[in-house]
Automatic annotation (TrEMBL):
Organism, as annotated: Electrophorus voltai
Family annotation (CDD domains): hydroxyacylglutathione_hydrolase_MBL-fold
Annotated protein name in UniProt: Metallo-beta-lactamase domain-containing protein
Domain Metallo-beta-lactamase: from-to ranges: 132-295
MF-aspect GO terms: hydroxyacylglutathione hydrolase activity; metal ion binding
């Protein structure tokens, strides 16, 4: 997110605390003929007024303020009218061409000074276009073949291709917005054999080869691009990973408008939970992956991140470096995903400092759920792997809850036993973590683990804490090696899922040590 005008917490709160927001569809009703006439007349008058507004002198501060407010407030109806015209009609392309002309007049050599990056025969050249966009020319120096990511300005990209003396084989378009796709058709006229890749769901101009999630495309002998579907900014947004294993170097991620240096894109066509899931896709990639974003937003984004985590020293060091770069109009790309995870607030949704700044922090004991399991003897305790505290994480490493475990001597049905007390807390997308665990079900899981076999379609009926019927299913995860302490041991895994009536299912994985 790039804050325009006043800085506020609403966009990041929507991302970290997903909610459904929007307006209901309008009610369709019949109108008299005279109201239709007046509506048409008002539309024509409004059109003339808007044309006059945009033809006003550029020094008009009230006009700039109106435009800034219109583009910053995505919940306003006027914004969606303007956005629909931009993204779905030829008026958007006409506006894009006007913006290109203005940018060429203002920045004859580009808005930033860039340097190519060469890694083992692969050359990546950022091409500055418009007022803050980047296109990327990626060259296989051995075969002299090239690919382009998001060619917004065909003249600038073509000039780079001619200067390098390479043949354009492929265009990879992250999404449909004209500031990323405006040069697709023009470049195809220059290079008739060039293929245009992107998502079929995003209405990309000039698209010839639709891609789906995790499709791969080879260009030359060293360029292998893998596409990832990352909706949120637009419904069909894609990012492209240049696989470093092919040429023996670091991978490169061309993130379009999903992820910027210390920021992320606006949620034009997706919910906050959708956007967060797409960011999790990025978080799952290697930390040494180079990040090549679609815009030069580094300075604004780092200043915005300073309000979220003012004590983050890594962010402060990066900001000072960026300020020095931008004072000389130097490009701030690439970053690395490892760096971004240290200061980008949209990749740090697990950080407690960020939660406190957004008012999302809770007292530690506020939402703890207690679980008890009675074990009959020390030999049963020995079969359990117990620690003082466990932190559960998602597949991308984001914390989603915590469990505190203790073992005490006790009695059950007047028989001596050990009590395992497990206290849990946490929330996932505003839903409390944790579920009641019945000892009988755990015994069942333990028996299955001893046999190292889970029958197919194994389903049980059980009751939750409110005596509502819940469906329990089990699935075999198989054996694997697991480090316990400092020892590598064999463990057997079982997945258990409980689906309560009218509630969200809960799933966890249990791994058992050998007897």
């Amino acid at each position: 997110y790039r804050p325009n005008g006043a800085r506020h917490w609403l966009p990041i709160k929507r991302l970290l605390t997903p909610v459904l927001y929007g307006s209901p569809p309008p009610t369709v009703m019949a109108l008299p003929d005279w109201t239709l006439f007046l509506f048409g007349l008002a539309s024509v008058c409004g059109g003339f007024w808007i044309c006059r507004l945009f033809r006003a002198p550029r020094k008009s501060s009230w006009k700039r303020g109106l435009l800034r407010d219109l583009m910053a407030r995505t919940e306003k109806p006027l914004f969606w009218i303007a956005y629909s015209l931009y993204s779905r009609t030829k008026l958007g392309y006409m506006f894009h061409k006007r913006q290109m002309k203005k940018a060429r007049e203002k920045f004859p050599t580009g808005h930033s000074r860039t340097q190519p990056t060469t890694i083992n025969g692969v050359k990546i050249i950022p091409v500055p276009v418009l007022s803050d966009n980047y296109s990327y020319v990626v060259i296989d120096t051995a075969s002299r073949l090239a690919a382009v990511v998001d060619p917004a300005d065909p003249k600038s990209v073509q000039a780079c291709l001619e200067e390098e003396g390479v043949t354009l084989e492929a265009i990879f378009c992250t999404h449909k917005h004209w500031d990323h796709s405006g040069g697709n058709r023009a470049l195809r006229r220059y290079h008739s054999s060039c293929r245009v890749y992107g998502s079929a769901t995003d209405n990309i101009p000039g698209l010839t080869h639709p891609l789906t999630d995790k499709d791969t495309v080879d260009v030359g002998t060293r360029l292998r691009f893998r596409a990832f579907c990352t909706p949120g900014h637009t419904v069909g947004h894609m990012i492209y990973l240049l696989d470093g294993c092919v040429f023996g170097g670091h991978s490169s991620l061309f993130s379009g408008d999903l992820l910027f240096l210390s920021g992320c894109g606006r949620m034009f066509e997706g919910t906050a939970s959708t956007m967060l899931s797409s960011l999790d896709t990025v978080s799952s990639l290697n930390d040494d992956t180079l990040l090549w974003p679609g815009h030069e937003y580094a300075e604004d984004n780092l200043l915005f991140a300073a309000e979220a985590e003012p004590s983050n020293m890594v962010r402060e060091q990066k900001l000072q470096w960026v300020l020095k770069q931008r004072s000389q109009r130097l490009c701030t790309s690439p970053s690395t995903l490892g760096e971004e995870k240290q200061y980008n607030p949209f990749l740090r949704s697990h950080a407690q400092d960020l939660h406190r700044a957004l008012g999302l922090h809770q007292n530690q004991d506020e939402d703890w759920t207690s679980h008890q399991l009675f074990l009959s003897g020390p030999e049963d305790v020995d079969r359990c792997l117990l620690v003082n505290s466990l932190v559960t994480v998602s597949h991308s490493g984001r914390e989603v809850g915590e469990f505190r475990v203790s073992v005490q001597k006790s009695s059950y049905n007047e028989e001596p036993c050990y009590t395992v007390q497990a206290d849990s807390h946490g929330k996932i997308e505003d839903w409390p973590c944790g579920t009641s665990i019945a000892a009988s079900n755990l015994v069942m899981v333990h028996i299955l683990a001893q046999r190292k076999k889970v029958p197919e379609n194994m389903v049980f009926l059980s009751f939750d804490a409110d005596t509502q019927i819940a469906l329990s299913t089990y699935r075999e995860l198989g054996s694997k090696k697991q480090v316990v302490g400092k020892e590598l041991v064999d463990v057997f895994g079982i997945e258990r899922t409980i689906s309560p009536t009218g509630d969200h299912p809960a799933t966890w994985h249990c791994y058992f040590l050998p007897d």
